Amino acid sequence: MIMKKKPFIPALACAIIFLCICGVLGFQYWNLDSRYHSLTAEAAQLRESNSGLNEQLEDSAAQLDEKEKYIEGQKDYITELSEQMQDLGKEDNSDEDEQQEDWYSSHNSEDDPYPNLYADKDNMPAQSGQKYVYLTFDDGPSALTPKVLDLLDEYDAHATFFVVGKNNEEYSQYLSEIVKRGHTLALHSYSHDYNQIYRSVDAFLEDYEKVYDWVYEETNGYSPCLFRFPGGSNNGSSYVIHNIINEMKRRGFTHYDWNVSSGDGSNLTTSQNIIDNICSNVKYVENPVVLMHDGSGKNATLAALPTVLQKLSDAGYEFRSLDQYSEPVQYRQAE
Ligand SMILES: [Zn+2]
Fold first, then answer.
1. Cα(139) to centroid of ligand 1, in Å?
2. How far is ligand 1, taken at its centre, from the CA of residue 94, in Å?
């Protein structure tokens, strides 16, 4: 009986092991099968997007081809135009050259039809030995202005005042006084605010019209035609300034910069500095235009002025106002 029971146990164990192995293998098969399906789906997706990309690539290549052809066409057109321009230039120059030669050959010195039409340089200031200096005062009028005017009178000196409107309204009566005493009343700015006025041509004109109207009303119709850019014409963006200069020229206004600075823009400059800056630098330029200030607080300038007037007078200078006939000192010019 014992012998009969023994083979049953190993058989059962074998069956259990077999079933376990079958289970594990079955699970792995199921697992691999589902991975196979998901990979197949991914591959299909990739194939699809790949073909989309290929289409895009082909489109872009076609566009690129088209653009290259267009550029080639433009290049040919430009070459053709420049050749035409060169031809035209040659024709023009040859015409002008011929005319010029004709003119010279028929107008030699012996039969000059305009024998008296030559500039008489003896009348020019440089020949007569007379030296001129143009003192200019910016940023006024202020409480200092009448004192400056009195000092100028003492030396029979004329000067130019580039006035500012904002914060100076209470000194409006000095505008007429400047004109009455024979000086040139010119415009500087209404606000003197660089960020505002140099934004655009319109921004500049809007500000300029304010100071122009103020002066015109306060002086009963004095119409200034000279002006000075705050900071000089080399301030602000060159593009905007060039457009302003051209537009102001079109309106008949001329701007004046300076070629000698007194250095009184800084409140740290002493009267002695101002005297030295002016008197040592005027000799390096012809017809010096001197930058000074008569705005509020420029007491050092006022204190320096008698010595400046005396020294320049001793050096033979005549003090003149700028006018439309004076050669303008301009850092940037109209085009
Ligand atoms: Zn100024």
1. 5
2. 51
